[in-house]
Write a structure and sequence with these properties.
The protein is of the alpha+beta class. The protein has helices spanning 50-55, 60-66, 69-72, 111-127, 139-144, 148-156, 160-175, 178-189, 192-199, 236-247, 255-264, 272-286, 292-295, 300-323; strands at residues 12-20, 27-33, 38-44, 77-78, 81-86, 91-96, 204-206, 215-218, 221-224, 232-234. The strands form three sheets. It has a five-stranded antiparallel β-sheet with strand order 1-2-3-6-5. A three-stranded mixed β-sheet has the order 4-9-8.
Amino acid sequence: MAVKPSSFSGQVLEREPLGVTGASGNRLERLTLRDGRVIVSKRVSPQWDWISRATGDDGGVARMWSTGDFARIPPALDHATLDVETGDGEWTVYMRDVSAAMFGPQRRLDRPALHCVLEALAELHLAFWGEERPELCTLEDRYNLLSPATARRETDRGEPVGETISRCWEVFEELAPDEVGRAILALAHEPVLLAEQLAACEQTLIHGDVRLNNLGWADDRVVLVDWGERTGSAPPAVELASFLVFDARRFDVSHDEVIEAFCALYGERFDARALELALIGGLVQLGCNFALPIVLGRGDEAWVAARTELAWWGPRVALALEAWSPV
């Protein structure tokens, strides 16, 4: 990737470290510029970011910026991105400071708020409909994120996340119904099988990491940050499935109502097969995440929460597996 400096880097008067973003290890800073503006920067590199390593990301957000993709994102979505600087094996995303607009860890979504998010996402997907972007996160890379292969690689590097992923899959196997557990684990070991099926469906650009921690609301627009590592080509239903896995427990509507609302937004472009495959993929990509609070030792409440979610996911994915299964 070519080195591309940003005009912001030469305007910084003060830097306030904000720590790291989640488990990725990426560095956040609040910057005060010479003209008085306050913005936020996120510095990313596969050197320290295991998620970038897992998804094969070598600066997809920089490519999106340089090719004008951000300018094409519909007005309903506020991506907050101002510039992307590239360096030697790393990149820095400069953003408006939208921290006051973000939903935060306690926010729940009622029906109107959820519909606003789904409508904004549909506008994104329809704006890029039919486009394939092999230079961004691929379907196979997406499903490699929390795979046993990722766990082995990170363990070999001495990264604690590797052991955590391995333990999460062990607990997931305990939690999931036998038939579902076998199919999901088979795909977690060989995600290309699912990727090939989904690649035959209509593609578009998806954000790839839609969850409440990345969402907010400001000036009658949905704020959506953290573009890059998981942004890439996929059927829209892949976006929905990961959103459900991450946050359905924080919605004031049922999983089935969310799916029904999603389907209605795409009209004749709705693809029932893509939805079934994407729901299987939801567990391949993130199902072991249900086990994370258990692995982190959060007690009986964590077991109850995981079993409650899988009480919906297990039968629903079992139904999808009747149409296509790797085992």
